[in-house]
Amino acid sequence: MLRRRAGRAPIANINVTPLVDVMLVLLIIFMVTSPMLTQGVDVDLPETTSTPVKQAKEPLTVTINRDGQVALEDHVVEVGGLGAKVVAIFAAREDERREVLLRADRTVPYGVVAQVMASLQEAGVDHLGMMTRPLETR
Predict the structure, then answer these.
(1) Is-contact 102 131, C-beta < 8 A?
(2) Domain range for residue 108?
(3) Which of 9, 97, 116, 131 is the most exposed place for a label (fewest CB within 10 A)?
(4) Residue 36: Cβ within 10 Å count
């Protein structure tokens, strides 16, 4: 039979300090990287005094960056193929309201914006909104 030594009891507690250290490092990493995930395409939005509009469902987002590249939900597309992709996305959704938000850099020529808007209208978009930044009060 096995005997225990009378002088030593087994250690029953676990050192959790390394676990806490790792969890804090992971928390800091997620806090630093999460703001980077929301900004897909870098644009400089124009400023307005209007208040943001509350939405029931998330609308599609079309972005035009300062180089004139068009992105549908952070995926770069050609202007000619934009309408077909929008039609396909709305066909897959069960939402009756065809709503698109347009984010265009303030330096993009109006002709490019008008071309994208015409392509969206041909795709059957019912509601088109323009995204802006609020004016900074001084």
Answers:
(1) yes
(2) 47-134
(3) 9
(4) 8
Token pair recorded at residue 121: 């209208």
DSSP 135: P
Query: Is residue 1's pLDDT more than 70?
Result: no
Q: How many CB atoms lie within 10 A of CB 12?
A: 5
| pLDDT tens digits, one per residue of 36-64 | 665 566 778 788 877 766 655 678 899 99
Q: Which residue from 54, 53, 74, 52 is spatially nearest to 62, judged by alpha carbons?
A: 74
Torsion of CA 114, 117, 119, 121, to 10 degrees: -130
Tell me how many domains the chain contains.
1
CATH number for the domain harbouring residue 115 = 3.30.420.270
Count the Cβ atoms, other than its own, within 10 Å of residue 72. Answer: 17
- Token look-up 């630093």 returns 32
Q: CB 122: neighbour CB atoms within 10 A? A: 13
Query: In angstroms, rounded to a whole number, what is the distance separating the alpha carbons of residues 123 and 11?
Result: 70
pTM of this structure: 0.58
